[in-house]
Amino acid sequence: MDIEQFRKAGYQAIDRICDYYYALQESKFTVLPDVEPGYLRPLLPPTAPEAGEDFTQIAEDYQKFIVPGYTHWQHPSFLAYYPAGFSFEGILGDLYASSVSNPGFNWLASPACTELESIVLDWASQMLGLSSSFLNSSGVGGGCFQNTASEAALVAIIAARSAYKASYPDTKLEDMRIYTTTQTHSLGLKAGVILGLSVRALEVTKEDNFSLRGHVLRSALEEDKKKGLHPFILIATIGTTSSGAIDNIAEIRSVAKDFPEVKIHVDAAWAGMALVCPEFREMCHLEDINSIADSFSTNFHKWGLTNFDACPLWVRDRKYLTDALDITPPFLRTAQGDAGTVIDYRNWHLGLGRRYRSLKLWFVLRGYGVEGFQKHIRKAVGLNETFVKLLSSSDMLSLCAPPSLALSVFRIDPRPSVSNQTTLPEDALNDLNKLFYGKISARKDIILTQTVLNGQFCIRLAIGSAFTQEAHIRRAFDIINHEAKLTLEAWEQ
Ligand code: PLP
C-alpha cells in the first residue's frame, strides 16, 4: 500500500467506523454475535497468501468475516464484566500513535513519548486526587503505563520483593508471602504463580460487605510471622470484581504502621475512576490511600473513557521500581540516561518496548476535561440507582450485596408468596439462579456476567458504556424480570 492508497483506505475506514457507531447507538445489531465456536477457520484460507492482496478486498473480508464475530463492548446493552473504555478521541490517539510506530523505551527512543507520558500521568493523578508524592514532577515518585492492572500488581509485587530482600537479604523466597483477600482479582494468585511465591487470601465476610478489615489483616500477619513467614506485600482492592467491595484502607492504615516492612499496593482497576468525583473520595478511602499506599493503579481503559489499553501504575518512590527492574546492557545506554536527567520508562515495567499510550490519554483528558469525566461517572452511578430502584420493586429479585457505584449484584430470591414455599434452601436457590442465568446468557440482546458471593450464585450488572441511557437500563430490567418470571414458572412445574 502506498501513501495515496492509505489515504483512500483510511477515509473508508473512518466512514465505516462512523456507520458502525450510528448503528450501535440505535441498537441495530445485538450485543452478542450470532456465531458458534470455530466459526472463523472455515471462512479463511489455511495459510497466508503468497502474493500481497489488494486492500479493497481485505477491507471487504474484514466486514464480512471479522465484524460478525465481535462481542460489542460499546453496545448500550453491554452490562457484563466491567466496561471497556471508549471515546472517539481515544481512537484518534491510537491512530496517531500507531502512525509513528514507536516503542519509546528510553527518553532518547522518543523524547515526546516519555515526556508526554510523564506529564499526562501527572494530569491524571491530580484529576483523581492522588497525593503529590505520586507525581512525576516530584522527581521522586511517579506514574507510568503498564499493560494491564494484573501486570501493574505483578510489577508492584516484584518491586516489593526486591525492597524486602534488600533489607532482609537472608530471607528465603519460599518464606515470603503476598496477602490478598478471597475477593481479590485473579491477579494476586497469578502473580504468586509467576513469581513462585505463596499467596494468602484473607477471608472477608458478607457482614463486612466483602471488605478487608484491619483486625483480619493484623491477625494473619501476626500468625504468619510467628510461623517464621515473611509478609512483604498486601494487595488491597478498591472496587472488587465480584461485588465492587472496597477494602477498609482506614483500618489497614492503622495496622500498616505496625508492619512497615509490608508494602501496600492498591488495585483500583475499575472503581479508581470514581475518584474523579469529590463525592466518592471518602467512600474510596482516598485520604488513607494517599497516606499509606506504596503503589496505586487504575484502568482508564475500564471506566475512564480511554480505549484499551491504558493502565497507569503510580509509585511513591520510583527507585522502588528501578531498583528491581533496571537492567542496562551497553546497547541501551544513553548519555541522558547515564546522567540521570531523564526517565527511561523501560526500567519501570516488564518489557523493553512499550506502547505509546500517553497520546490517547492526552487527547481524552483534553477532549472531556475533568468535568466530562465527572459527568460520565455520575451518569453511570445514576443509572445504577435507577436499576436498583426497579429491582427493589420486584418481589422475585434481590441484591446480594450493597450496590457499589455503577455495579449491582442480584439473584432471584422469591418472597414466599411468589415461590409457593416458605423459603427456598440455599442449594435450591443456587440451582434456580443458575437456571435463571442460563436463560439470560442464552440471549444475544443483553450481556451480564455471573459470580459467586459467599457461596451464593449471583448475577452482576455493571454500567459504563458511553452509549447506555436510562431507556436501556429500563429495558434490561424488563428482560431480567421477564426471564425471572419464566425461570420461576419452569422451576415450579
Ligand atoms: N482488578 C480488578 C478489581 C478488576 O475488576 C479487573 C478486571 O475486571 C482487574 C483487576 C484485571 O484488569 P486487567 O485486565 O487490566 O488486568
From TrEMBL:
Keywords: Decarboxylase, Lyase, Pyridoxal phosphate, Transferase
A Pfam family it matches: Pyridoxal_deC
Residue positions, PTM N6-(pyridoxal phosphate)lysine: 302
Signal peptide: none
Named cofactor requirement(s): pyridoxal 5'-phosphate
GO molecular function, one term: pyridoxal phosphate binding
Cellular component, GO annotation: cytoplasm
SUPFAM superfamilies on file: PLP-dependent transferases
Biological processes annotated in GO: amino acid metabolic process; carboxylic acid metabolic process
InterPro entries for this protein: Aromatic_deC, PyrdxlP-dep_de-COase, PyrdxlP-dep_Trfase, PyrdxlP-dep_Trfase_major, PyrdxlP-dep_Trfase_small, Pyridoxal-P_BS
Family note: Belongs to the group II decarboxylase family.
Protein name (database record): Pyridoxal phosphate-dependent transferase
